[in-house]
Structure formats: C-alpha cells, structure tokens
C-alpha cells in the first residue's frame, strides 16, 4: 500500500492550498481516509476524515468552515482544500487510510503517507 501526498508549500496567511493524496495497492473505494498534521514539538493531531463512500465527514474544530475534505474514488485520491490559512496551520500534513469507517483517531489507521509540509507565513 502506498499513499503519496502532494500540494504542500509556503503560503501567506489568508491564502489557500489544496492537498492531494494518491492511493495505490488497496481497494480505495472501501477505505475511510483521514488527514492528520504534526507541528514541530507537538503531537500528531486529527484534521479531517471521510468515509469510504463520502457519506460521513468529520473535521477538527480548529479547521471547521475553512477546510474541506473530499474524495474521488475513480482516481483513488483524497483531497484537502484549505482556505483562510493561519500561521497555526503550519505543520506536516499526513494522509491515512483504514478499512471502511473513517475515525478521528490516528491509532485506528493502518496506512500512512510520508507527509507534505505546509507553511503559512508572511
């Protein structure tokens, strides 16, 4: 199984980025997918998750109304649209997958990507 994130970079406060996570080696349409992030010196934290069919979506309170998770099962890809970015959103963002049900707990996820850096700074 391979999860490959892309789309990270440097953006000014208030700006936007869209992260992508391309999955291979698993039946993507039967896996819940999540995004987590880890800032320097902090523990990994939940950002957003989407169930295998996209019917259930969860967000961390800190990103509600600013971030949107979506998936395209035909392309084996999950996305994270990030708007109104703040300096406190700076972190390495990780994509994760688990069978069927999406959860907000990192320990529930079996598969992880290598991460992509997002830096929000002026």
How would you concisely characterize the structure shown here?
0% of the residues lie in helices and 50% in strands.
Tell me the layout of helices and strands.
Layout: E1 2-6, E2 9-11, E3 17-24, E4 31-38, E5 45-50, E6 57-59, E7 67-72, E8 77-82, E9 91-99, E10 111-112, E11 116-120
Parallel strand pairs: 2-11
Antiparallel strand pairs: 1-3, 3-8, 4-5, 4-9, 5-6, 7-8, 9-10, 9-11
Class based on secondary structure composition and strand pairing: mainly beta
Biggest sheet details: 7 strands, mixed
Question: Radius of gyration in whole Å, from Cα?
Answer: 13 Å
N-to-C SSE string, H for helix and E for strand: EEEEEEEEEEE
Number of helical elements:
0
Question: How big a fraction of the residues is strand?
Answer: over 45%
> How much helical structure, as a percent, in the residues?
under 10%
Shape: globular
Number of strands: 11
Cα(first) to Cα(last) distance is 37 Å
Average pLDDT metric: 96
Could you describe the 3D structure shown?
The chain is mainly beta. The chain has no helices and 11 strands. The strands form 2 sheets. Strands 2, 4, 5, 6, 9, 10 and 11 form a 7-stranded mixed β-sheet that branches. The mean pLDDT is 96.
């Amino acid at each position: 199984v391979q999860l490959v994130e892309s789309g990270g970079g440097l953006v000014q406060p208030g700006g936007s980025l869209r992260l992508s996570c391309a999955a291979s080696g698993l039946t993507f349409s039967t896996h819940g997918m999540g995004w987590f992030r880890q800032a320097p010196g902090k523990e990994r934290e939940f950002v957003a998750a989407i169930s295998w069919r996209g019917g259930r979506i969860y967000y961390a309170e800190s990103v509600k109304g600013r971030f949107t998770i979506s998936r395209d099962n035909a392309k084996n890809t999950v996305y994270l649209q990030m708007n109104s970015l703040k300096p406190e959103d700076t972190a390495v963002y990780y994509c994760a997958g688990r069978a069927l049900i999406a959860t907000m707990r990192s320990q529930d996820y079996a598969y992880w990507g290598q991460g992509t850096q997002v830096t929000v700074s002026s």
